[in-house]
## 1
Amino acid sequence: MTPHEKKGATQYTPYHPRWYRTRVSTYWWLWKWYYLKFVLRELSSIFVAYFVVITLLQVHSLSRGSETYARFEERMRNPLTIALNAISFFFVLFHAITWFNLAPRAIVARLGGKRVPDILIAGSNYVAWLAISATVAWFILR
Amino acid sequence: MAADAPKKLLEPFFWTLFSAGGVVAALLMPVHIFLFGLAFPLGWLQDLSHGRALAIIEHPLVRIYLFVFCALPLFHWAHRFRYTLYDGLQIKHLNEVITVFCYGGAIIGTALAGYVLWSIP
Amino acid sequence: MAETIQLEVTRYSPEHDAAPTFQRFEVPYRKDWVVLDALNYIKDKLDGSLSYRWSCRMGICGSCGMMVNGQPKLTCATFLSHYAPGAVRVEPLRYFPVVRDLVIEMTDFVVKLQKVKPWIIRKAEKSLSDGEYPQTPQQLDAYKQFSMCINCMLCYAACPVYGLDPLFAGPAAIALAQRYNLDSRDQGAKERMDILSQHEGIWGCTFVGECTEACPKNVDPAGAIQQYKLTAAKEWLKSLLMPWGAK
């Protein structure tokens, strides 16, 4: 039986009339907790982009003068904005934590022939995160 | 195979930007969102006066910092969101539209960031 | 007092069925039985027409991979006691076409595996009189984890990208490519890079990480793929900055 291209058939797996292919549901990511966690992690990027926009609006309003800046701050105090910012904060934290925890898998560091343990690589990321955050906060608040 | 050549060239490029953006977003965003998104508006910490804030951002190093802070995470979003659309909504057949939307959006955002940061008085 | 446990097994006969269905069997519950033992009991005593793959029954051949209660597992390494007293649902490995009952068509995996050239590639073979290729323990350590792959395809059943994207090479293929890239005896890294760097060869991977969770041999294919992406990115950067340095 010669394989032939069927509409929607994959490039590598030839079509065979007697094989059964289960169609992957659009909601595949809802049926397993670990898939859902993965999709939420990916969606965190939306909140990252959102806050970049907020930051640009903030800088823009600063350039325009103290009145414009005051109006920007007023909008930031809006409860809806604060709620969105709170959600963004948690999503960005989720992104940061998953990112640092996965870093050791991508970066293989060897010291004197032996592999550096994962927890040290992840740990050094967290330490850098704390140090940098503290520095930025100090710089802004001093 | 010629049509694959630009794709072959671009995927590692966008992935590198995605990684760099991910690192920037992970290290810098939490403290920024906490301060400017929550602590200042809610009054937990004393807010920056307009004059003080302007004095900080007009410094060229701060402008560069802010440019990196805005540009790289945007490319991080672009790459990640593109694949989320492919796998989450299974609309890979629209991949030209999605690619243009995502990376185009990031490029426009980066250009806007450059403009906004350049035009600080 | 004989205890029993229910098994819900996928049945699909392409001659008679339009789609897979489930059939329930009651098998004896023994504490030391694995799902494969239950399937063998069904085939021996209850329904001889049940079709499935198995071989070594000790977790080294990679033949008996199936979905057990929605998780990709080696049925020879999955104990009934883990699921007792509830029913155990056994389905064919996810994201592969079903040929019959619990048997899947694995040509796609084999094709992709062959594409990555999972063997030592040398520009020029040493002649026998030159002796062996010596390798230090550190050099072995660099790729040993990825060499543990038994080609059981559980990682493919765990990977949603593989299920959605026909062009994605898949966790095991990339991990095995990396196994050879990191082998000090191998000189074929560039050849494999050209193949894998195309389209979604590796770039489709979004680091879901479930492949590593499913792997019964701790190969960590997700780690292999991310390391490979990093290498590919470095190679791309090098080719950009030093285009004259073509290997």
## 2
Amino acid sequence: MTHVLSMLVENHQGVLSRIAGLFSGRGYNLESITAGVTTDPQITRITLVCKGDDNVIDQIKKQLNKLIDIIKVNDLSPLPSLHRELALIKVLAKPNLRGEIFQVADVFRARVLDVGIDSMVLEVTGSSDKIDNFIAVLQPYVIREVARSGLISMERGKKQNSTQPPKRKGASEKLNADYKVSIA
Amino acid sequence: MKISGAELFVKALKAEGVEHLFGFPGGVVIPVFDTLYSEPDIKVILTRHEQGAVHAADGYARSTGRTGVCLVTSGPGATNTVTGIATANFDSVPIVCFTGQVSRSMIGNDAFQEADIVGITRPITKHNYLVLDRKDLGRILKEAFTIANSGRPGPVLVDLPKDVILEKGDDEYPAKVSIRGYNPILKGHPNQIKKAAGVLKKAKKPLFYVGGGIHIAGAADVFRRAVKKTGVPVIHSLMGIGAIPGDDPLCLGMLGMHGSYIANMAVSHADLLFAIGNRFDDRATGDLAKFAPDANIVHIDQDPVSISRNVPVEVPIVGDAGQVLEQLLPLLDAPSIEDWIEQIEGWRSEHPLQIQVRGEIAPEIAAVEEPAAKKQDASQPSIGHLRPDRVIRAICRKFPDAIIATEVGQNQMWASQFFTFRHPRSMLTSGGLGTMGYGFPAAIGAQIANPDKRVIDIAGDGSIQMNIQELATAVQNKLPVIVAILNNGYLGMVRQWQELFFHRRYSSTCLMTGDGCPPECKGPGDHCPVYHPDFVKLAEAYGAVGLRVARDSDIEGALAEAGRITDRPIFIDFLVEREFNVFPMVAPGAGNTEMIFSEGEES
């Protein structure tokens, strides 16, 4: 199953390499990773998307927590959360096709960033699925280049007052009480 | 006051109470060694190879619990530490390893003796640092010592660029640091502890299973009290040796690949496995599907990663083994397990192999006849006929309270089977990484830390040659380390696997191979070439004492002679039976009850 982990990490040199090395060294499956500084310049937020069964995901979270430079790991998958990715797509667009491409872009709420003699650059944001679909729809027009940002995610705000934290699912549930791992 | 980076480094060592530093100098760290030169409180132990320095720091740390410190230069000096660091990392040993680095402006330019040691050691350290700003140096040094010896300990590497070493700056060495991403949990969760005590009380076939975490936490004492209070029998991993005296009736011995019959049977029939400080390593569990099939598992460990990784755990407790056991002790009750103890005693009598006997010695199956004298030159090693188990039992009788270091392979397993360990932290062995060449330098480090104890390295003739250069270190520091070489002329453990699983094709495992050997040797005999090196001459060349024992009746005498020497290392070349195997054995991938007891049984 795919999980989205949102982490706060020290803005130290090598921290991305520690995370990437952890995944490659232990054979975990890393689908995407994005990093950007937070309002505190010493802290970076990293969003990573990884795949694995419950045991593997549990190990990934524990191993990440062991890294000294990682301050907090938050698994967003079981929580109500927002996921967005941005993509820039350059498609072949002879003048006679531009109108059609504009229409497709409109349907996906994509923006046209650039128009060249025979190409256009489109910007689209949304879930990874939406971007996959957009790319699929553009396929017939010949895609020259795609640049995707990888996922960034955030937990939604509370919708009602409750003292209970949202409940997590999965095999690891009973362990959580004891771990530093954990939910925001 | 403004001081240089090197001066701050020395100040930090003193503040941390470091008395010994294991190292080897080189271009970029000359200024650090220069500062140490006039420092009477810190003794620099100059090893002959950087790997030796790290293993020595490791032996120093394992035998005492204090942090081992080493200092080496950039490039090859740094890369030579890699095996030592990985060894310490696998076995959770607190080490701080300082490496020199080229000046900051040259980093990345492929400068002379440059290596990205922080990149290289990232996956094999608990944490590591490259100091890029002199003003961070004090904090980083403090963090390094803090991280290395807290929580689940481990090696920390600090890479010091030459210009940072030289730069004048702040002289502050903080007394404390807080690291927001690092807060080890020490106390166990009270509810989990209650639960653990509850399941132990109700268990019909409980078993304590202890690992190296017991020693790291300094918890052997409280653990022994827990065993006494509950009467629950104990099995241990290789790293857990000494948690309870090996001759205690409740100690069933080591489990796993070369564990005792009784421990492997017990773990396979237990209904509760009360695990403390272990990783459930594959050499201990065997086939996971057949591991402790009937048991619920309670697992106390400092590192959440170790819990439910290989084996699902019913009651996980994250915390320091010592603190958790202290919390647990008042809640413990003795379960009623008379039937279980009886069943265990049944296993004890079922396989009266010497290997199961932990207390007084192996049935000394009638003395073997002394072999006819061989035709070889008496001064040269000849084919041996000693039994390694007897050699180790004799060592155990002569030096019962010694600290034992081992190399890796058959020597390591025989040491774990036949030496009766009575004290915590008395066995130094590379359990996780399995590093040949670990034992001798580790013994040197342990001897430095424990000048009043006997330190003995039980070695093989293959392993000892991997760090034999440290003889010079031992001689120059007048360390009476005894190295008992069980010399069978083979890389014995690999040879054993070849015998059992590869049709006795001894490819590249015979250390005697030479002129006149057939392309495919059918086994050892009188035709074998002379062994090299001659360990006796080699020891003497270094200024150490060299002894050779070829006959059973000479074992005690040689050990007595070694025992009288207190100012030099002693090499004893025990010529053992060449094809003696380690049994029982659980074949790789088999379950723990599927033990092989002799050569005829290979599957």
